[in-house]
Specification:
This protein is an alpha+beta fold. Helices cover about 20% and strands about 55% of the residues. The chain contains five helices and 15 strands. The radius of gyration is 28 Å and the shape is elongated.
Length: about 375
């Protein structure tokens, strides 16, 4: 359908809420670490955060510096499922196109920079903010289907790829626990992504459980490398609405030909349905199967005709014409698998890389982090 090919650039790429702190507060254990444990317990902790910092240090826990600032690059590609698509023209009635538009593919791709300040409120709870700028694209492949006497047929198809910029902001928390170098973390955050074409920012909730192992360098106790595995779950706000100027979809000089071609195919399909229905006997017309088939064909062709009528108004009033849309979307797969690693040069500087794969989503994250006490 002519008005749909560019509407879907509003489908947002979502993972710029991904973030990670120094891996965790860690309980030092083992007889061979007795001297280290004793030295930790003797340390006076003079800083405000984390709350209870002195108490956990006195029990033999090593805690990271309380404040941090990280910068991360993220690339992600993900398949999206689109449904409940409706369009309207010039603020008129909205028409549902689920029976007419069938999506073959919808792939969102994004890359950008994520800036994240954080602090340890408690020794086992990190809190952070998120600010990201990203360049994203959405590639759509779909077909236009209408019925005739023999069933639904594809009368056209389109592919389009739209590029746009997004600003993302949000916050998150990461409860963690570590003992003997092993650790668990549960990253949770919510973000809102602002794009000009959306009526309101797109909402995303991310859940990322991880479990891993930290390996310290023998001669440099503040230098270590951590490895982890885990999962990445994305929940998107299901409904997206917006308003576009008609000239943003296609060059206006292409609209008239597309509308006229649509009317021709509509007329042919309607004639085929009418000929089939009128050729049935009265008994056959009372058959529930034939009734359902006729009602479906009539409903879909009527909707298609109304959409063409709306599109024809765009041709006659292109300068001021607008298109309203509403759609629901969700990730094809809620979860994907994660593998990651972080190298800690010292208690101030860390370097991180993480890859997500399996399922219909892939992602790569690389970042640097600076930590400080306060």
């Amino acid at each position: 359908m002519l008005m749909t090919s560019r509407i879907f650039f509003v489908i947002l790429i979502f993972s710029f809420g991904t973030a990670s702190a120094q891996y965790t507060t860690d309980k030092v254990v083992g007889a061979k670490n007795k001297e280290v444990i004793d030295s930790i317990k003797k340390v006076e902790y003079p800083y405000i955060f984390p709350i209870w910092g002195q108490k956990v240090v006195a029990k033999g826990f090593k805690i990271p510096k309380s404040g941090g600032l990280s910068a991360q690059y993220l690339y992600q590609q993900s398949d999206i499922i689109i449904h409940d698509l409706s369009v309207g023209f010039n603020n008129g009635p909205m028409y549902n196109l689920d029976e007419i538009i069938r999506f073959n593919s919808a792939v969102a791709t994004s890359n950008g920079l994520n800036i994240r300040p954080d602090f340890w409120l408690f020794p086992f709870l990190n809190i952070y903010g998120i600010l990201a700028k990203s360049k994203t694209s959405t590639a759509i492949g779909a077909g236009v289907w209408i019925p005739d006497s023999s069933g639904f047929h594809e009368i056209g198809s389109f592919k389009t790829k739209a590029n746009f910029n997004a600003t993302t902001y949000g916050f998150g928390i990461t409860p963690t626990f570590g003992i003997g170098g092993f650790f668990m973390a549960l990253d949770m955050n919510v973000t809102w992504s602002d794009i000009d074409a959306l009526d309101k920012p797109a909402f995303i909730f991310i859940l990322g459980p991880r479990i891993g192992k930290n390996i310290a360098f023998k001669n440099k106790p503040d230098r270590n490398i951590a490895f982890w595995t885990g999962g990445f779950r994305v929940h998107m706000g299901s409904t997206t609405t917006g308003n576009l100027n008609a000239s943003e979809l296609f060059p206006i000089d292409q609209w008239e030909d597309k509308v006229n071609n649509g009317y021709t195919k509509l007329s042919s399909a309607q004639e085929s349905v009418d000929t089939w229905w009128n050729g049935l006997t009265s008994t056959e017309q009372k058959n529930p199967v034939n009734i359902a088939k006729h009602e479906t064909a009539t409903r879909v062709l009527t909707t298609y005709g109304k959409v063409l009528d709306g599109a024809s108004q765009v041709v006659s009033n292109a300068g001021d014409a607008s298109i309203q849309y509403s759609l629901s979307k969700k990730p094809k797969d809620m979860w994907n698998f994660l593998l990651g690693s972080q190298f800690q040069l010292n208690r101030d500087w860390m370097f991180r890389v993480e890859a997500g794969f399996l399922g219909s989503r892939t992602q790569i994250i690389a970042g640097i982090q600076y930590r400080f006490d306060f």
